[in-house]
């Protein structure tokens, strides 16, 4: 396509309409609502259509592999050509020029800022994110319950798509090849483009660096609650007093009910009022103070304090007890 | 029995100093290690039996394990939840003297080399094992214990052999037990599934028998392996591979929940300490006859005895044998914020 000379919007529309889209249209046709008589299905079909159209638009702008790899494609790429207002040839020229630049912007992110390998890794990271993103809390929790770790740590949606090792490897190979060929194409386009690097807005680079710094792993409270629920269930078989009195298990119980959750930046456990759980725990005395209510200076000897403490709890403490404690101290367990 | 409370912090690891007979270090995390800070306690046992806290170091993220340096009596390395390894000098307050950051996820174990005392090893939930020396900020080597993007790729523990400065054993979340030779171009020299698909959480190398290791995990069993008896070529596609996997020398059965730590005694090749989520720690006597093949064909015979320590009120996560004095003294720590030191012979 020549960049020179006047090009009208009409011309462009013409070009666009001449593209062979039979396959594309077939696909679209198959998604037109077929069951008009069933009113209940209409809503779903409408939604499906919308999703499909979005998907089509998305795919048109970029290969889905890259769409997966980088989350959402940049908004500018989703402007269909025909949506441009009637414009002078100059505008049109600008727009086309802009279109030419876009791949460059995009590919600049791939190749100049980062190496091919890094990018591929980031792609894989995103692909596998649901698998890798096993928050510490879940990993810790699942060890103890005798559960298979994957049951608690991996979202069910992902689990249903789990592949065998062989399939996984095969898929990786295919993706590898596809990705490689796409990069070859991009690199060619890249070399043809005559854009100076200085014209690339800094913002893009900033966004890139921000996205690199962004945490990969995001824990969600619902997953946390699910993991806690599994721990509670696994441990519920234990009826011993230790397990009944376990602070950790009671905390897990609260988490599973949603009464305790992680705060937004996932640095604290908070109750429903937003108070930190740990602080509350620490403010509570470990054991009731047996000498509460006794003024300072009132006690002179350890025996006296033991006697007073015993009286406070309705016990009498004698020298025999002291001797017994001393004798049996080592046999306490 | 002696005790110390790590108030507000749940214990993850405890280790005796290799230099002082009365010093211990305890790695702890707040909120059971789920979120929040960590704290490293350095404890001393006074002659009157009191345990006192000499110094503590707060960290931004939870601490999951620690290792005393074998070359410097004041240095302790910690495995941190933020993926870093910090080395503290107990004479230098507040801040670490060295921070090493390469792991991409939580570092879950750290172990100092007892032979070549200049190196230590760390393992992480990012699926890697890294070899370090304190004189370098970069790791000496990285071993990928599992496929980089496998779903379940935590390496829970890696331990140096006390007999060979370049041999490591690692316990992986995917149930694999791996033996590494750090000198080899293909360092993974042995790889087998030890716990029937359940996560292997811990491993240790026997201090007296160079080819014997113990592993334990989510299947509640402690298994003792003789590495010479394992055809560990990591080729699991092979049709000749025994479906049951290799047979252990002995199996120690008794814990009610997953086992978080096994430690062989430094005084007796048959004594083993285990710490479990069933809120007990046990001291085992491995009585398998070394001349038989142990639990051959899965016909398990009772070849062990155990003694139970049940004072902990929450999960018992870390433990260590004392190197010093009368054999059999043990320290354990757990999520009940307690450190107990007791004589395992008197259980």
UniProtKB/TrEMBL annotation, chain A:
Entry keywords, A to Z: Coiled coil
Organism: Wickerhamomyces ciferrii (strain ATCC 14091 / BCRC 22168 / CBS 111 / JCM 3599 / NBRC 0793 / NRRL Y-1031 F-60-10) (Yeast)
Residue runs in coiled coils: 169-196
Official protein name in the record: Uncharacterized protein
Region listing for Disordered, in residue ranges: 274-297
Entry's Gene Ontology cellular component terms: peroxisome
From TrEMBL, chain B:
Record's keyword terms, sorted: Cytoplasm, Peroxisome, Protein transport, Repeat, Transport, WD repeat
InterPro entries, A to Z: PEX7, WD40/YVTN_repeat-like_dom_sf, WD40_PAC1, WD40_repeat_CS, WD40_repeat_dom_sf, WD40_rpt
Chief place of localization: cytoplasm
Residue stretches of each WD repeat: 100-142, 213-228, 252-285
Coiled coil feature spans: none
GO biological process: protein import into peroxisome matrix
Origin: domain of life: Eukaryota
Entries under Pfam families matching the protein: WD40 (PF00400)
An MF annotation (GO) of this entry: peroxisome matrix targeting signal-2 binding
Gene Ontology CC terms, in alphabetical order: cytosol; peroxisomal matrix
Similarity field: Belongs to the WD repeat peroxin-7 family.
Name of the protein: Peroxin-7
Lineage of the organism: Eukaryota, Fungi, Dikarya, Ascomycota, Saccharomycotina
């Amino acid at each position: 396509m020549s960049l020179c000379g006047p090009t009208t919007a009409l011309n462009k529309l013409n070009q666009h309409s001449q593209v062979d889209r039979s396959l594309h249209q077939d696909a679209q046709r198959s998604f037109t609502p077929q069951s008009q008589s069933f009113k209940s299905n209409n809503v779903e079909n409408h939604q499906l259509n919308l999703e499909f159209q979005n998907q089509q638009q998305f795919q048109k702008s970029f290969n889905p592999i890259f769409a997966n790899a980088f989350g959402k494609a940049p908004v500018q790429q989703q402007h269909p050509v025909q949506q441009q207002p009637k414009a002078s040839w100059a505008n049109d020229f600008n727009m086309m020029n802009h279109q030419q630049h876009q791949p460059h912007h995009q590919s600049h992110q791939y190749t100049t800022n980062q190496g091919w390998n890094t990018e591929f890794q980031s792609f894989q990271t995103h692909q596998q994110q649901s698998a890798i993103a096993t928050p510490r809390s879940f990993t810790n929790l699942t060890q103890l319950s005798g559960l298979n770790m994957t049951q608690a740590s991996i979202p069910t949606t992902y689990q249903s798509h789990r592949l065998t090792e062989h399939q996984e490897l095969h898929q990786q190979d295919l993706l590898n090849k596809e990705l490689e060929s796409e990069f070859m194409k991009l690199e060619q386009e890249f070399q043809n483009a005559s854009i100076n690097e200085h014209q690339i807005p800094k913002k893009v680079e900033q966004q890139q660096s921000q996205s690199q710094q962004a945490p990969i792993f995001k824990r969600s409270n619902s997953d946390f609650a699910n993991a806690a629920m599994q721990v509670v269930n696994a441990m519920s078989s234990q009826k011993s007093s230790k397990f009944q009195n376990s602070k950790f298990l009671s905390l897990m119980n609260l988490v599973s009910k949603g009464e305790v959750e992680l705060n937004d930046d996932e640095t604290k456990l908070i109750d429903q009022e937003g108070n930190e759980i740990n602080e509350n725990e620490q403010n509570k005395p470990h054991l009731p103070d047996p000498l509460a209510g006794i003024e300072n200076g009132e006690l002179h000897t350890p025996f006296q304090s033991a006697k007073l403490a015993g009286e406070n709890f309705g016990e009498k403490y004698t020298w025999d007890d002291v001797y017994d404690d001393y004798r049996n101290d080592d046999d306490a367990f | 029995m002696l005790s110390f409370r790590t108030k507000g912090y749940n214990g993850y690891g405890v280790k005796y100093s290799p230099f002082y007979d009365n010093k211990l270090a305890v790695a702890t995390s707040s909120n059971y290690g789920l979120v929040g800070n960590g704290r490293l306690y350095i404890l001393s046992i006074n002659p009157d039996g009191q345990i006192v806290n000499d110094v503590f170091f707060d960290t931004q993220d939870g601490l999951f394990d620690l290792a005393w340096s074998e070359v410097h009596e004041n240095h302790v390395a910690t495995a941190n939840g933020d993926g870093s390894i910090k080395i503290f000098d107990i004479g230098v307050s507040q801040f670490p003297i060295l921070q090493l950051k390469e792991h991409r996820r939580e570092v879950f174990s750290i172990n100092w080399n007892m032979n070549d005392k200049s190196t230590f090893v760390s393992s992480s939930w990012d699926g890697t094992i890294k070899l370090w020396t304190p004189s370098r900020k970069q790791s000496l080597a990285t071993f990928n214990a599992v496929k980089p993007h496998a779903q379940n790729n935590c390496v829970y523990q890696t331990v140096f052999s006390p007999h060979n400065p370049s041999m490591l054993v690692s316990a992986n979340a995917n149930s694999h037990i791996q033996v590494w030779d750090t000198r080899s171009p293909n360092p993974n020299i042995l790889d087998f599934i030890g716990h029937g698909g359940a996560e292997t959480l811990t491993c240790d190398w026997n201090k007296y028998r160079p080819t014997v290791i113990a592993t334990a995990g989510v299947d509640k069993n402690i298994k003792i392996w003789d590495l010479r008896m394992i055809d560990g070529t990591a080729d699991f596609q092979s049709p000749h591979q025994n479906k049951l996997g290799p047979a252990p020398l002995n199996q120690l059965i008794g814990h009610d929940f997953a086992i978080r730590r096994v430690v062989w005694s430094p005084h007796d090749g048959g004594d083993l300490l285990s710490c479990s989520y069933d809120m007990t720690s046990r001291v085992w006597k491995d009585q398998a006859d070394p001349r038989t093949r142990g639990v051959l064909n899965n016909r398990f015979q009772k070849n062990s005895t155990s003694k139970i320590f049940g004072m902990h009120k929450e999960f018992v996560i870390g433990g260590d044998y004392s190197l010093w004095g009368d054999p059999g003294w043990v320290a354990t720590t757990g999520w009940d914020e307690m450190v107990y030191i007791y004589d395992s012979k008197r259980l």
